[in-house]
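Entry 12.
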Amino acid sequence: MRQAKGPFFKARELRFLRMLQLKPRSTKDAKHKLSSTFRVDPVELKPVYFRISQASYVYGISRTRLFALIAEGKIKSRYLVQPDNSRGIRLIEEKSLRNYIESFNEEGVHAR
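Predicted 3D structure (tokens):
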């Protein structure tokens, strides 16, 4: 994964970590460098849907492969668009993506 620099990248990554309910241990880590040590709140909320980029980041599957899996019907997704807009947001069901990954055996062969 390429390293992007700048405040925009840090803010985007912090928003993503907040979505996963992970919090940096100190504000110094959050502002200057992102540390690999995070604590999880006692109440852990799991996201039901991921955006394509978030699913790619969390599961390590490329965006192209995710779109191919959606087209093949192997994972479920929703497309949210406003009536007067031409673009929308593609959301992937986390449960269907996890089930697809778990359908492989340990050697990487599709079990079903």
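Annotation: Residues 7-19 form the longest helix (13 residues). The helical segments are 7-19, 27-32, 52-59, 63-72, 94-102.
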